[in-house]
Amino acid sequence: MNRISTQILSLSLGIFLIFSLSLIVSLFFKDHWLWMDEVLSYLLVSDPSLAHANDALVSGMDANPPLFVNVYWILGHAISLDFQFLRMVSIVFFALTLALFFWYTTTLMGTPLSNFVLITLIATFTYLNLTLATQVRSYALFLLISLPYFIVLHRLIAEPRHRLYLGLFVLLGLGLSLTHNFGLFYLAASGSFFFLLWLWSKRQSVYLWPMGAHVLTLLLWAAGWFTRFQIQTEAGKPHSWIPLPTWQSFFTTVGELSPMLSYSLEQRSWLAFLPYLRFFGVAFLFVFILRKKLRDGYAAFRTDAAFQFYLLSGFIYFSTILISLAVSLVHTSVFISRYLWPNHLLVMFQLMYAFYQFYTPPRLSGWYRLAPVYALIIGAFVFYQNRKVVHFPKGILSYLPQMNPRYPVFVETADYFLPIWFHKFPQQVHYLIHWPTAAVPTNILSATVEHKILKSVREKYQVPGLILAKDFTKANFPHFYVVDESSHYQMEKFINSQQIKVVRQLPIDIDGHRLLECTFN
Length: 521
Hints:
single chain, alpha/beta, six-stranded mixed β-sheet, globular
């Protein structure tokens, strides 16, 4: 093994240790409560029966394909079902993805030390990484599978008839689409890339092989999952819980895929231009470099491995954004940054490639001695930043103990109900499963989705506290409290129709919240 290979291997290990250790250690120095989606994942993963978990997955509890639940179920039942351990699994997947990304990109361009610094800085200052890497959700597995998917696509550009790469592509394409439904968008984007490459190459028949592999992957997905996929989509009717993208939300969403100086600072109105700047910056660099490189023609492209990956990454990045935007505007709103997390890897490579287009770093071997110090600084910063990430806002918990423990508490959202129930908070909470109020057109978009999710949770896991409309009676609940949220319409219906009356309103200092003590009339 030569010196460069040794450096690549050691720095790959360094990246893995920086992010895995700093994030894992930070778990024990921050609030550990799971948020709503994580509770749903944990219910499935901790199910004693894998068959029952897969059945519940299709019932409307979750809108994701089965691979995540099956992988985490096997790991959880083989090692530990502690939810902190399952979070560690996600962290290891994330850190492994970054380490493998460093290894592969360094074989294409740049120097090991420069790439080490670039990747760690970009990953550290991308807030989305901190919010997704520590969750018991499918995102970390989705990111991990997306990297070899991109690598195999890159290899197929130069060797489109390579049987091993074609076989790996089908497996990885299936893995991607069976981990998250957005995997289908990545299949569509990469298939379009090879179609355009086929046209650019003056219709060379070799590119029909990758295109055929895309079709085969889609057919296998349809044969194995499409029927269940249709059942899952019922939870998103009559509408998605995700608001339709607007001009501002579009740039905020895509901007979260790129590094930022401070997430909290960007919430200030006078810095609202920064998401625009990040997206247009990436787009400008891509177009500028593309115009310059494409002048060399297709023959030069075939011999430039780094530019091949750059063109592939830019095309998939912009294509998946456009596809998800089009689907959101035409069919169902799905435009949200966490579904596009694999694009962060593509942005990272685009920024690295642009860096080397405009700057050639000096080869100073002495700087390697400072790498451990730099690694400690980055690790400490990641630890500090992740401690500040809050998945479940616990402000409401301080108000629950002031209520009479003899009276049940009704909450209007699954965001409150599931974490409070799961973590066995002393004050008992309830949620009313009531479709007429959930389906009111002026209600918050998530109301219908939460209704269907919690109805499935009640049916599949008999979670107490989920109350059917027929059981919401004076005999069962003569006296109770309501955590009323202005964004949700539910108990207002019963108050306005004088079925229940408000005895008194308790003080609460949370925007958009009221604490009501109620009785049936």
